[in-house]
Amino acid sequence: MSATLAVRARWREGVTSLAGAALLAFGLAEIHVPLAGYVEGEGPDLAALPAGWLAVLTVLLVGYCLAVAGCTTYPRAAAVLAGACFAAQSFTPVLPEWPVVPLLALLAASFGCVALGGRAAFPVAATSYFVPLGIENTVAGDSDWVFILFVGLAVLGPGYAVRMRRAQAARLVALAAEREAAARADERLRVARELHDIVSHGVSVMVLQAAAAQAVLDSDAARARGSLDAVQDVGREVVTELRRLLVVLRGAEPAPEALPSLRRLEPLATGVRLAGGQVDVAVTGDLDAIPAAADVSGYRILQEALTNAARHAPGAAVRVSIEVAADALRLRVTDDGTGAARRSAGTGHGLTGIRERVELFGGTVTAGPRPQGGFEVRVELPFDAEASVGPLAPAGVTR
């Protein structure tokens, strides 16, 4: 967008420079190769004017042409210059009434000032137009104010309309830039959330498995070997998830079967079981009826909840309830863990990530300690068409 605006600005400058050069050539021809009388055969004979006056007219002509050439680059200065030249010519033997150059230059500079001049442009343009014409009218003894007002409105009015349109276009460009910046920030947040979900769960389970292996390394080699095998399996799963995320970030579409899904929840539960905990999963409803966006987000939410349970309540019994209703997906994760490492109600990046995912769907989430002990996370994700698309944008998935 900015490159296009720069090209347009260069084109305007080139066109106005050519217009100023054309007016200069025409005006020099009028001054130094005079034709018949410039106003219906009346007026002084330019050929009979002294060389001094011809030099003055030539200087004023150069001023007009500079005003036209700079009416887009320096619009207010161009309007003032054209008005000053017009007023000055009113006191020469040749009033600024000859065809084309003086009046046309004044009109072009006034239009450019209103359209491109920024703050205080309209008063500058109006003063630069009406005051010189008033001086010329007074010197010439004319009283054609109706024509002056009509021409002024015909020039300044469209100039003001162009100004308003340019301001609206600038606002739209600024709004588009703000939206793009917000989209990029949201994209970074979503990618960070995905990375957190992938790495946090995998690393937490690997640390717990490694600790379990170390604890029984001397007394139960078979169990230690099983824990180390689980570390390898979880590590491979994390690497696979990271590769999938990198494929998405590069713009490729992952295969639908490669996406996280509540239909493939068993590896999450297995990781917690191998860490010494118990996980029971109860499903009500048809998992195939869950929209793709809610399916992926539901998986990530359960992943985070199980990771928190394994990290903060190792060895606890965890119950996972998945209810697929006609209009929403309801998730409940409870554990009976206790101890000093028990979480507070709603702190930490994990629960923050869960809330952010739920907010994208316009759903609800409650998390906190249970009165009878342990911790509980309740989530409801409505099957809303618009909201369900949002969370999958960073994952390259559309419904």
Automatic annotation (TrEMBL):
<dbReference type="Pfam" id="PF07730">
    <property type="entry name" value="HisKA_3"/>
</dbReference>
<dbReference type="InterPro" id="IPR004358">
    <property type="entry name" value="Sig_transdc_His_kin-like_C"/>
</dbReference>
<protein>
    <recommendedName>
        <fullName>Oxygen sensor histidine kinase NreB</fullName>
        <ecNumber>2.7.13.3</ecNumber>
    </recommendedName>
</protein>
<dbReference type="InterPro" id="IPR005467">
    <property type="entry name" value="His_kinase_dom"/>
</dbReference>
<feature type="domain" description="Histidine kinase">
    <location>
        <begin position="300"/>
        <end position="385"/>
    </location>
</feature>
<dbReference type="InterPro" id="IPR036890">
    <property type="entry name" value="HATPase_C_sf"/>
</dbReference>
<keyword id="KW-0547">Nucleotide-binding</keyword>
<dbReference type="GO" id="GO:0016301">
    <property type="term" value="F:kinase activity"/>
</dbReference>
<dbReference type="InterPro" id="IPR011712">
    <property type="entry name" value="Sig_transdc_His_kin_sub3_dim/P"/>
</dbReference>
<keyword id="KW-0902">Two-component regulatory system</keyword>
<keyword id="KW-0472">Membrane</keyword>
<keyword id="KW-0479">Metal-binding</keyword>
<keyword id="KW-0411">Iron-sulfur</keyword>
<feature type="transmembrane region" description="Helical">
    <location>
        <begin position="100"/>
        <end position="125"/>
    </location>
</feature>
<keyword id="KW-0597">Phosphoprotein</keyword>
<keyword id="KW-0812">Transmembrane</keyword>
<keyword id="KW-0004">4Fe-4S</keyword>
<keyword id="KW-1133">Transmembrane helix</keyword>
<dbReference type="Pfam" id="PF02518">
    <property type="entry name" value="HATPase_c"/>
</dbReference>
<feature type="transmembrane region" description="Helical">
    <location>
        <begin position="53"/>
        <end position="74"/>
    </location>
</feature>
<dbReference type="InterPro" id="IPR003594">
    <property type="entry name" value="HATPase_dom"/>
</dbReference>
<keyword id="KW-0418">Kinase</keyword>
<keyword id="KW-0408">Iron</keyword>
<keyword id="KW-0808">Transferase</keyword>
<dbReference type="InterPro" id="IPR050482">
    <property type="entry name" value="Sensor_HK_TwoCompSys"/>
</dbReference>
<keyword id="KW-0963">Cytoplasm</keyword>
<feature type="transmembrane region" description="Helical">
    <location>
        <begin position="145"/>
        <end position="162"/>
    </location>
</feature>
<comment type="function">
    <text>Member of the two-component regulatory system NreB/NreC involved in the control of dissimilatory nitrate/nitrite reduction in response to oxygen. NreB functions as a direct oxygen sensor histidine kinase which is autophosphorylated, in the absence of oxygen, probably at the conserved histidine residue, and transfers its phosphate group probably to a conserved aspartate residue of NreC. NreB/NreC activates the expression of the nitrate (narGHJI) and nitrite (nir) reductase operons, as well as the putative nitrate transporter gene narT.</text>
</comment>
<keyword id="KW-0067">ATP-binding</keyword>
